[in-house]
Design goal:
The structure holds three protein chains of three kinds. Helix content of chain A is about 35%, strand content about 25%. By secondary structure, chain A is α/β, with parallel strands linked by helices. Chain B has ten helices and no strands. The N terminus of chain B is likely disordered. Classes of the chains: A alpha/beta, B mainly alpha, C mainly alpha.
Chain lengths: ~280, ~240, ~270
């Protein structure tokens, strides 16, 4: 792992050589400010291929911001993010921090999928169109291909008969399952899950999480998860990172973090959310 | 002067312009522009601004009267007032101007007619704004006046209207700008507002570029800053709420 | 007032003059439709430019919008009638001279440019009211800007912009009456003024003129309300047009369900 001093001088990651051990996501000295408010500071971490990482911490600790930075929904204030070893927003050239080309950013972005807290399905399209729109028009798949894939994904999320329904006629849980199918239809290498169950009625949370468990079990997709469902985090993730005040307070195997947290802040947080 | 073609003496038929003549003269003549500017500006202040200011005053007051009438009169009467207002709002000012001009010819000055027609026309727009403002006064305010046994007149005067008016100021500003840009319609009843004055100056000389450009720039120079100001006021009021 | 004594005779005159009046009405309708369509195209083009992230598109759009709505309709009309043709007169070789030789077309352009600039503001504003989550979802799916606008954002903004566009179209219809001063164009107002001579001002302008303009404005309003209902239905809000128009038992208007309960398909009026 490159130290900040190394990063200042040389290219921290070997560019464009995505071998098996290149991290899929790498944050180097990442900083994010909203005006004067520093949300993330000097953030460094890596996510390996196929790894599933859950970010926990109190609200306002910057977890969601990390996902949004990876999805390029927020602008980076400082530092670098690498996807498969390639710079996502800025790169170092001649000791200077310069933005990467739009083309490269777009190419990298198609490898990343995201499921939102508020589903964000397109209300002007049917369920099927929601799922096939981007595969056809962004990835250039044929319509038949995309439709076939969409049907099998709808099968997978348990909504095989809703292809022609309109999103507004679906319940929240159903909408979120469609949103998961929509993200998966792009065959992402990285799947970002941003509090995907927070807007759902308690009785349907389990269904949605089961679908995600199945995705985790059957695919090798790298996941970056922000959630308040600690049971799910524990089952699914390889690693848990505890955030507070824009910094990683503690990270480790879920078993260790949840049963035997070492940091006082983590103990307090888990005590509060788990109700001990 | 024939009243039949009031506007015609001011306006050249553009299809009759002598092309050879045009080619001999420059596209833009500074002498004409400098010479025309004072008379156009004078018409702007004496007529265009006058009509806008007085018209806006009428619209502001009459609009409130219409809104209160619609909200307080018994149903059938309120309905009549409402549709009369709709009728005026949804028909052209140009036709209204011509109609009033001939209906009251000889009894009222054309300039006065113009002010009244613009005032009444925009009052019907303002009445909608006031109505929305009055309806947005919280129910609790009405209940409080009942609890205090205030008379209906006092309730309207001291509680409802002051609260409703605040949020309507930006709309009044926007309609004033609209009215301002509509004032050249007065050309159809022969009031010498700015564009009519510009035509009157340019037509005998066959010079159009300078006069209409000056008129357009004066419109821009007056309406754009006002619009920015109104916009700011709107945002400030939105914050205050 | 003569009107109340002579009115049966006026209807006879009206009948005799009906051809000319209908001609004028047709001109007014054409001005409103062509002008309205041009205004719509300009509004969408300038509105999208003004709402785009690129300064190179935004800046010129802003200037055009402010100029075309900042100078009055009449000034714009006179610019087009007197100044634009000079371009062709100084350069006789320029093509498309026919545009400036038709005073009718110039009228359409004046209406289209002026109200199109107002409409551009409505379009731009409605783009910003599409929920942020929709924009973010399109980014998450790597859609290009034209793609996301065409397929996701505009269809949703459309339902929001229709009420403003309706108002503007009625304004345009009313504004078209100024075509009365355009040489060689005899719109409805011009013909009304002719009718004034054999009848009187009340009969021609108030009774026939204002009422017909009012009816035209109502037609525009009803048409646009139908468009709005259709657009909302497509977004899954409100009943379809057919359900609104069907005289059968009132269809239950399906509310969007914030709590997320599955919606029962309304059976009333659903004979599709």
């Amino acid at each position: 792992m490159p130290t900040p001093t190394e990063a200042a001088g040389t290219q921290p990651s070997p560019a464009a050589s995505s071998s098996a051990d290149t991290p899929v996501i790498e944050f180097v000295d990442v900083e994010k400010r909203f005006g004067d408010n520093v949300v993330l500071k000097d953030l460094n971490f890596q996510v390996a291929r196929g790894e599933r990482v859950t970010l926990i911490g109190p609200s306002g600790s910057g977890k969601t911001t990390i996902l949004r930075l990876v999805m390029t929904l927020e602008e980076l204030s400082g530092g670098y993010i690498y996807i498969d070893g390639q710079p996502l927003t800025h790169e170092q050239r001649g000791g200077k921090r310069v933005p990467v080309s739009k083309k490269q950013q777009k190419a990298l972005r198609t490898r990343i999928g995201m499921v939102f807290q508020q589903f964000n399905l397109f209300p002007n399209m049917t369920v099927l169109e929601n799922i096939t729109e981007a595969p056809i028009h962004v990835l250039g798949q044929t319509k038949a291909q995309a439709v076939q894939k969409a049907h099998s994904l709808l099968e997978q999320v348990g909504l095989p008969d809703k292809a022609d329904a309109h999103p507004t006629s679906l319940s929240g849980g159903q909408q979120q399952r469609v949103a998961i199918a929509r993200a998966l239809a792009m065959d992402p290498e990285i799947l970002l899950l941003d509090e995907v169950t927070s807007a759902l009625d308690p009785e349907v949370v389990g269904d949605v999480l089961n679908i995600l468990r199945e995705v985790a079990d059957t695919t090798n997709v790298t996941m970056l998860i922000v959630t308040h469902e600690m049971g799910f985090a524990r089952d699914v993730s390889h690693k848990v990172m505890m955030f507070d005040g824009g910094r990683v307070v503690e990270e480790g195997h879920p078993e260790q973090i949840f049963t035997n947290p070492s940091h006082e802040r983590t103990k307090k947080f888990l005590g509060a959310v788990l109700g001990h | 002067m024939s009243l039949e073609n009031l506007y015609a003496q001011e306006i050249d038929d553009p299809t009759l312009i002598d092309e050879e003549e045009v080619r001999r003269t420059p596209f833009w003549d500074w002498d004409v522009a400098i010479d025309a500017f004072p008379s156009i500006l004078e018409a702007f202040i004496k007529y265009t601004l006058l009509v806008t200011v007085l018209g806006t005053l009428i619209a502001a007051v009459l609009g409130l009267v219409i809104a209160v009438l619609i909200l307080t009169l018994p149903k059938p009467l309120a309905w009549i007032v409402k549709w009369l207002a709709n009728f005026i709002r949804m028909t052209p000012i140009v036709v209204q101007l011509i109609f009033v001009f001939w209906a009251f010819l000889g009894t009222i000055e054309p300039l006065t007619m113009g002010i009244i027609v613009f005032g009444v026309h925009y009052a019907t727009y303002m009445s909608e704004v006031y109505r929305a403002g009055i309806e947005s006064v919280p129910k609790g305010q009405w209940e409080a006046t009942t609890a205090l046994s205030m008379s209906p007149v006092r309730t309207w005067q001291k509680v409802v209207i002051p609260q409703a008016l605040r949020s309507t100021v930006p709309s009044l500003g926007n309609y004033a700008i609209s009215m301002f840009k509509d004032t050249p319609f007065l050309i159809v009843i022969g009031v010498a507002e700015m564009v009519t004055a510009a035509s009157a100056y340019g037509a005998p000389l066959s010079r159009h570029t300078e006069v209409y450009t000056i008129a357009g720039l004066i419109f821009l120079a007056a309406s754009y800053p006002t619009a920015v100001l109104v916009n700011r006021l709107e945002k400030r009021l939105a914050y205050a709420h | 007032m003569e009107f109340f004594e002579d009115w049966p005779g006026y209807f006879q005159v009206l009948w005799n003059w009906s051809d000319r009046l209908l001609d004028g009405l047709w001109v007014t309708i054409q001005l409103s439709i062509y002008g309205g369509l041009l205004a719509f195209v300009i509004a969408v083009a300038l509105g999208l430019m003004a709402g785009s992230p690129s300064l190179w598109l935004r800046a010129p759009a802003r200037v055009l919008i402010e100029v075309f709505r900042g100078i009055s309709l009449v000034v714009l009309l006179f610019w087009l009638m007197y100044i634009l043709p000079l371009l062709w007169m100084y350069n006789p070789g320029l093509p498309f001279r026919g545009i400036v030789e038709s005073t009718f077309l110039l009228g359409v352009f004046a209406l289209g440019l002026n109200y199109g600039a107002y409409g551009a503001e409505a379009v731009r504003a409605s783009l910003t009211t599409v929920p942020k989550g929709q924009w973010e979802a399109t980014t998450a799916l790597s859609m290009s800007w034209p793609h996301k606008i065409r397929r996701v954002i505009f269809p949703q903004a459309w339902a929001l912009m229709i009420p403003s566009l309706t108002n503007l179209w009625v304004h345009l219809l009313k504004g078209s009456a100024i075509a009365y001063v355009i040489p060689l164009v005899s719109d409805f107002t011009a013909q009304l003024n002719q009718l004034r001579r054999p009848t009187d001002i009340w009969f021609s302008h108030a009774f026939i003129g204002l009422v017909i303009y009012f009816l035209l404005a109502l037609v525009i309003t009803v048409f646009m309300q139908a468009l709005e209902a259709r657009a909302k239905h497509k977004l899954g809000r409100g009943p379809s047009l057919r359900e609104i128009l069907s005289p059968a038992p009132k269809a239950v208007i399906p509310e969007t369900s914030p709590a997320g309960q599955p919606q029962q398909k309304s059976t009333a009026g659903g004979e599709r």
